[in-house]
Amino acid sequence: MKKKNKKRIASVEVRSFGEKTDFFFSIFIGLLALSCLFPFFFVIGVSFTSESALAIHGYRMIPAEFSWDGYKYLYEFKDQLISSLGVTVFITIVGTLINTTFTSTYAYAISRQNFKYRQFFTKFALLTMLFSAGMIPNYLVVTKMLGLRNSIWALILPMALSPFNIMVMRTFFKKTVPDAIIESARIDGASEIRIFIQIVIPLAVPGIATISLFAALGFWNDWFNALLYITSDNLFPLQYLLMKIQSNLDYIAQNVGLSGVNAGMSIPREATRMAMVVISTLPIALTYPFFQKYFVTGLTIGGVKE
């Protein structure tokens, strides 16, 4: 009886210690999550602060003097912003679909043991992660060989395949799609395309959602390809347009005294900068919760090394 009582007491103590530990780590993770959200809320607060209040009181999350001046200044570019937003949404959707399709099919092929050239194509993908041809060869291929200068495809095709995502999906397919299922489908007479669409894709939804999120973030935040290949105002993506507005703000501020006018003083530089950050990050931040459950599962399974 004494031994049983001791075991019960020990189990109760272990359980209470585990509950206390879980409570402590829950609070710690919650505070860590709030610390990650704090900078974004801080940027939103500064974007609604007047330029004079920023000069007197400095940066504050709660505006000392509420103002829409930053957003009003951006509203003057509303036609360009709407056009650039449409371009960004298009290249993000189409580019993500293309990237996910190419990446998942490539990764599935090299994850199968019966694929004769899987080692060659695996090393080929890894080689592109280690070595890059450089900016000039890329520019010549896109503009001269493919003739995509001032084309919407110049913003999509250079990012149509991701070697890192290929390695993630390769491991994911090997861990979640057993060879026995594939062999059973082949015995039943299913083609490779049918196996991939009807069997592999439903099993790989978390991994595909993970690489889709990576690809969407890459296309949404990309401005460098527009800088290299795009000169037409109608094809500027949102990030590149906001960068140009930022450059114009800096140019006006630096040359206020040279022209003898005071035009630059009326422009809310800091509030406009923060407003641009809000406009560029808010849409993608709102879509992230819909991918979160797939993102965690796909990243943890696909990140296992072999």
Automatic annotation (TrEMBL):
Bilayer topology annotation: Multi-pass membrane protein
InterPro entries: MetI-like, MetI-like_sf
GO cellular component, one term: plasma membrane
One Pfam family hit: BPD_transp_1
Transmembrane segments: 21-44, 81-108, 120-140, 152-173, 193-217, 274-291
A biological-process GO annotation: transmembrane transport
Location in the cell: Cell membrane
Protein name: Carbohydrate ABC transporter permease
Upper lineage: Bacteria, Bacillati, Bacillota, Erysipelotrichia, Erysipelotrichales
